[in-house]
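Researcher: I'd like a structural prediction for the single chain below. Treat it as a standalone chain; there are no partners to consider.
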Amino acid sequence: MPVSIFLDELTVKMHAKMLSRIVLLAKNGPNLREPVCKSLGDGIFELRSQMDGYALRILYFFGSGKNVILTNGFVKKTNKTPREVIKQAKAFRKDYLQKER
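Model: Treating it as a single chain, here is the predicted structure.
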């Protein structure tokens, strides 16, 4: 689901935690490393957080300049990130890059 909706559906505590991760990403950009973020390939990355037994994730990519584009968020329920979630992020990135030309 879109990041704004994902964040709105979290508890206040989880929302605050994910916002702190987003701020960390904004400050560090591509220098941010595991365990906070992880590359999923093809220019897509995963912003990661654990809270109250939930694995919270936001997918993103880097745009032009210092722009970080947040695509979608979800609560991870298995060891692997669902392909459909990655597919959505890749489609958004492709569309973004085409419009940027």
